[in-house]
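Reply to thread "Modeling small-molecule complexes from scratch"

Following up on the discussion above, here's a worked example others can learn from. I took a protein sequence and the SMILES for zinc ion and predicted the complex. Inputs first:
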Amino acid sequence: MKNILSRLTLLAAAVCLLTACPSEKPAETASQPSATTDAAPKAPAFNADSAYAFTAKQVAFGPRVPNKPAHVACGNYLVAKLKSFGLTVREQPFTAMTFDGTQIKGRNIIAQYQPQAARRVALFAHWDTRPFADAEKDKAKRLLPLDGASDGASAVAVAMEIIRTLSQQPEKMAPNVGVDVILVDAEDWGYDAGLIEGQKNLLQDNGDGWCLGSQYWAKNMVPPNYKAEYGILLDMVGAKDGHFTSEGTSLEKARSVVDKIWNTAAKIGYSDYFLFKDTGAITDDHVYINQAGIPTVDIYDHPAYGEEYFPAYHHTTADNMSLIDRKTMKAVGQTVLQVIYNE
Ligand SMILES: [Zn+2]
């Protein structure tokens, strides 16, 4: 994923004038905690050790770059693991062209808990990794692949642990909604202007090649005619001292869901992670999912202070297991589980 401002470098000034400028807004403009339903049952405990293990397992395959054996092997692992929880699992293969002209084979993976439930919540995460560490300060490292421990693996792991936990609940402890984990592929092979010398965007119509799996899914929903009350996109939710702010498109398209999540986090003690702070819009899978009519919020790691959109490890080789902290995964996983049980 990337910030929208650099994608629209030429239009940057106009963007600032016409829409929300991506520079940070003062905290006092942000939403404040409010009372949530006290009657909702307490969610089961989210097991951060299990989430950590799911992260480490994905990273151990090596970078999950489409067309590479590690990508296929990790995809097979995710399908098998989700099936082992007793869930209905579907695979959606697709092909797509990336900005550098590579024809890739991708696969979205969809697992359903309580598929019969009419009311549904969708959890999204991308399971591929960016093919190059092009945000490295050291130019010599910019063509190296990266582990994607936070950017990819941690979010898949949190979603998997949530649905594993749900799948183990006795019937009387089941939430009132069905939950779908939708793991999208090929999010991270997008065009980021100027980071790698001589790199050109070969896509027509100014396509930038981000979020190819979610774009495909949004146009060809699996299951067919899929509907959810709302979606929660997880992306980069595993790094030590992670912070989650209210992102521009999430606020525009799914304000009530943002409030629901951040208020729940505050109520159960995770306001050090979920900051009541509004920040600019980014390009991420939720953009296309929102276009498909599912109001969807992006929970992604945003620096607590300063002008940067992404933490220092983003799209660098520093995004490896040494970053990963169970406490951050617990904060996100427990909050999302409680949001589900509040329904
Ligand atoms: Zn990324």
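What I'd highlight from this example: The chain is about 30% helix and 15% strand. Residues 6-31 have pLDDT under 50 and may be disordered. Questions welcome below.
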